Amino acid sequence: MESIDLTVVWALIIGFAVFAYVVMDGFDLGIGILFPTLKVGEERDQAMNSIAPVWDGNETWLVLGGGGLFAAFPLAYAIILPATYPLMIAMLLGLIFRGVAFEFRWRDPRHRAFWDLAFTGGSVVAALSQGIALGAILQGIRVENGAYAGGWLDWLSPFSLLTGIALLTGYAALGAAWLNWKTEGGAQSHARRMVHLLAPAMIAMLIAVSAATPFLNYDYWRRWFDFPGVLLTAQVPLLVAICALVLFRSLIAGAERLPFLMLLALFLLCFIGLGISIFPYVVPRSVTIWDAAAPLRSQSFMLAGAMFIIPIILIYTGWAYWVFRGKVGTHGYH
Amino acid sequence: MFEHLDAVILARVQFAFTVSFHFVFPAFSIGLASYLMVLEALWLRTGRGVYANLFRYWLKIFAVVFGMGVVSGVVMSYQFGTNWSVFSEKAGPVIGPLMAYEVMTAFFLEAGFLGVMLFGMNKVGKGLHFLATCMVALGTMISATWILAVNSWMQTPAGHLINEQGQFVPGPSWWAIVFTASFPYRLVHTVIAAYLTTALAVGGVGAWHLLRDRANPGARKMFSMAMWMAAVVAPIQIFVGDAHGLNTLEHQPAKILAVEGHYEPSPDGASLILFGIPDSEARRVDYAIEVPKLGSLILKHDPNAALPGLNDFPREDWPPVGIVFWSFRIMVGLGFAMLGLGLWSLWARWRGILYDWCWLHRAALVMGPSGFVAVIAGWITTEVGRQPFTVYGLMRTAESHSPLAAPAVAASLIAFVVVYFFAFGAGIYYLLRLMAKPPQPGETQPPSRPQRAAGITPAASGAGTEY
């Protein structure tokens, strides 16, 4: 019984890491996606400055998500990564270009336009790969004898492309809302216009993905629409509607922080929705978290540290954000 | 079958390529983070501007190195799953938790405090800023500790059980898994290597600027500090390397025999082959230049001690002899060259011409990149020497890889090669450009606008006010 509990605990911890990654690197990648729409010079510099001190920490949650999966659910790690091989490689290469651009664009003003392009290209590729991988996992992975048994393009489908574009849109919306909060002047008014465009687009994509998911498999349908579970699951779309309403009202009212927070809430609701569709599978409909779990001794050894370390991480990460609070300013940090 | 083999070899080439590129950056950033910590501490203690200047000078370089280390490191953490999924599934319960601890205790610490270290001087004040620098340096050390614990377990596995699915699972003691037989030696040898690499790089940069302007106080200070480090640490490293070798002989004899080029057993004491061309088909070393008995003297500390030969081991358990034979000699040769440079600098210091001896500066300049070469050569020796196993003696490399077709791996390998040479090639070019600029004297305060120091505003706006 004890091992069952720890398996669920680890599923929640890894879920938390993935969610932290999605929203935190989400706005970094979103800024990368939107970068070409920002004016060269002050607007771009402000956007870059707003994430330069935190992007590395944000990306670390991806390593915790991957590393945690390796450690706590090695079988799932060993199935999902080969199944999405080209996507993972594309994501990693995209993140390389995105990451080095932070430094290189300042080091080489003559080629800044190029590194800005690399920043955008890397961000778009990383976001699309992550979104398509999500769709690939949702639509199911062929597993035989505890190993991936499909080809190297099995992940490609209209549904996975839809989730790819949906995540891209979502990240862009988050990035725009972050800029609306952290910048001022021309950059801010541009960002606000972008949120106006992107937030409805993101919600439309969210509806499209939500509508398509139950048709992938009857099991998803049952989880969402069977009575009496539907009384609970119906709260998710209801809350989405409320958050969307608050988001649009706050935008019209010219709020700076609330649109970003509402987008975070929408991402959280999407994440809960994914949980409803998937749990307790880690590779949908073939491998449950208990099938994939590492032995109790591995889980408990990690949990002994994680219980203390993750809260400490959250404290100093929070401190780092707090140090760089407020508007970025047009001339760097003062 | 042939196709099957190809996919494994491609995956191995890909891992070797990406890890070799990656390893250069942490080797530099482990040393640089500690160097920056020392510089900032000296500045806070003495208030002397030269330390603040050097801190800011190397901080810019650190930012670029660290960034490349991060992005190439993320690749490594995913490549276990993408290309070595069978290994990951089998060994995950044992090494996965150590890597998870690395993320939690090291990567977050480095990343969390890096922003403040790079951009936060005027936001948090000197004390907290120094704390951030210390945390980043500590993070690099913790990271090295965990990842070398993982590597050491793969080299000298211990503390695990094997369950009915053939998975490695933790035994009763995690201590036994973390502190395997080779771990203390490997950790000390690798961390010292990072320090030595950094000392030589800093010394090379200092020498370059001394050759152009002997009066530059920043160049003098960095050259002097680097040469002290080389003089003190190079002999320690040779001593530690010897101890690591003895440890390897005890636990991975085939690796050492391949390194030594000993195919035949030597019952009356082994010679030391200085150079030669190993031929594993014929099981002999051609054109060998050897010193009798010296091999046993080094490895057993007794000239007549018997040593086994590779022929005592099944052929299918041999590592690729030619590669480790040569990589080891490159590493050791450079190690002694570093020792020579350190001694030379001591002599120059004693004669009072440390800053005036052009030939010393030229030698230090040539030796500037030698640490990186030695680190890669050493890494190749230990990792290729682990072959043909991923978990030494227990799990073969050929049985560890993902169920991927060769074309998929070939495509990703090509993509990695192109992107790495392009992106990191550009990065190394930018690093050389930063290093080519002399450290300028005259500033006693940390930058009032840290943005340029770490690249946060356009270079033009900060130019001229920097130093």
UniProtKB/TrEMBL annotation, chain A:
Entry membrane topology: Multi-pass membrane protein
Record keywords: Cell membrane, Membrane, Oxidoreductase, Transmembrane, Transmembrane helix
Pfam families the UniProt entry points to: Cyt_bd_oxida_II
Top enzyme category: oxidoreductase
Residue ranges crossing the lipid bilayer per the database entry: 6-24, 85-102, 114-138, 158-181, 193-215, 227-248, 260-281, 301-324
GO cellular component, one term: cytochrome complex
Molecular function terms, GO-annotated: electron transfer activity; oxidoreductase activity, acting on diphenols and related substances as donors, oxygen as acceptor
Main location: membrane
GO biological process, one term: aerobic electron transport chain
Entry's EC annotation: 1.10.3.-
Localization in the cell: Cell membrane
Family in the record: Belongs to the cytochrome ubiquinol oxidase subunit 2 family.
Protein name according to UniProt: Cytochrome bd quinol oxidase subunit 2 apoprotein
Organism: Paracoccus denitrificans (strain Pd 1222)
From TrEMBL, chain B:
GO biological process, one term: aerobic electron transport chain
Pfam families: Cyt_bd_oxida_I (PF01654)
Entry GO CC: cytochrome complex; plasma membrane
Swiss-Prot/TrEMBL keywords: Cell membrane, Electron transport, Heme, Iron, Membrane, Metal-binding, Transmembrane, Transmembrane helix, Transport
GO molecular function: electron transfer activity; heme binding; metal ion binding; oxidoreductase activity, acting on diphenols and related substances as donors, oxygen as acceptor
TM helices/strands, residue ranges: 20-45, 57-78, 98-121, 128-149, 192-211, 223-240, 323-347, 359-380, 404-432
Highest taxon, organism lineage: Bacteria
Residue numbers spanned by region Disordered: 441-467
Subcellular location: Cell inner membrane; Cell membrane
Membrane protein topology class: Multi-pass membrane protein
Family assignment from sequence similarity: Belongs to the cytochrome ubiquinol oxidase subunit 1 family.
Annotated PANTHER family: CYTOCHROME BD MENAQUINOL OXIDASE SUBUNIT I-RELATED (PTHR30365:SF14), CYTOCHROME D UBIQUINOL OXIDASE (PTHR30365)
Protein name: Cytochrome bd-I ubiquinol oxidase subunit 1 apoprotein
Natural source organism: Paracoccus versutus
